[in-house]
Request: fold
Amino acid sequence: MSFCGLDFGTSNSTLGAQQGNRLALVPIEGGASTLPSAIFFDFQAAKTLIGRDAIDAYVRGVEGRFMRSLKSVLGTDLIDQDTLLDKHRIGFRDVLARLVGAIKARAETALDRPLDAVVHGRPVHFVDGDEAADARAEAALADIARSAGFRQVSFQYEPIAAARDYEQQVAREEIALIADIGGGTSDFSIVRLGPERRAQADRARDILANDGVRVGGTDFDRLLSLRAVMPHLGYQSSMLRPGLLAPNGYFTDLSTWSKINFLYTPQIRAELRQVRREAARPDLFDRLIAVIEHQYGHRLAMAVEQAKIGLSEESRYRMDLDWIEPDLMAGITQGQFDEATAELAQRIGAMVRRCLDDAGLKPGSIDALFLTGGSTLLGNVRRAILAEVPDARIVEGDKFGSVGIGLTIEAAIRYR
Reply:
């Protein structure tokens, strides 16, 4: 049986498999092992693109439909709904199956063999505080994996998978806090690790705590967009009627990856033209209407995402938005970003405290803090985690590969 580990992420995806006598990530986009979780339906050529090709087609203005952060629809009512593609409709389950199936097919081409069994990564909670919805989300993802061609499907929590990866370098027994902060969720595990434990299939006794919260990089994108960009398009601007502000819903949806496409309807365009007539600053709404009419929403979201990444290294970032209007730009400082996203960082820190309580441990009992997931690069996220375990040794994992490798190790143990 040919097995693999699949980390189908909100922002990026990887797939690992047996390659010769080693377990490794498979190159699924040129020479890259990480693929953006994006899909583009090209209406002109009647074909489907994924990853960087999908992003490139969208940015070049090819007529079609772009979707990203699709994992976030799991656990919501959207998973059982459909959406318009040119002149026909397609269900979100089918969209996800196409993306997962394309990743599987690319890996099979690179490996020159079919892949039958998969250990699929999953967050600790698809949905916060709703076990029934969480179970439905996992069942939906299992059905999607089977429809993509996998005959055997099982799951592992993403932070536990990351622990499997980290354990390969552990020289002696220790207690580690695994922090996996991705695009959609923040997941934590406190795990007892050691060289003699690596090959054990059942690690239930080693997992001292396992929890998470539905806060991830796309949530930071949303709040950054509302703080730095949306005011340039009319967000919280005054209407002609005294004391009345512009409706928030359009801006919130435009700042949320999974909701952008729902703004591209004749009804929304008509509503925005009416709001413009009642606005004290109609010029701001001209920009908003231009973004909607040209379907620039994902381009705007990508610019915000790049600003977020830039602020992890720089104290100030400038977004050039001259493709909306000549000379338009939006600036943001690291301090302003931290202020805008403080509540998210606090929720992440609170989850670490909860895991320590669940494990019955003091902060000083944590030997190592293993950081994986792109959002662990954000300064306020790191500070929130480190404030709870200040004495732990920091170990930097592969930000986009640790979970995928860990899932592959898990698959080898289960299916080999």
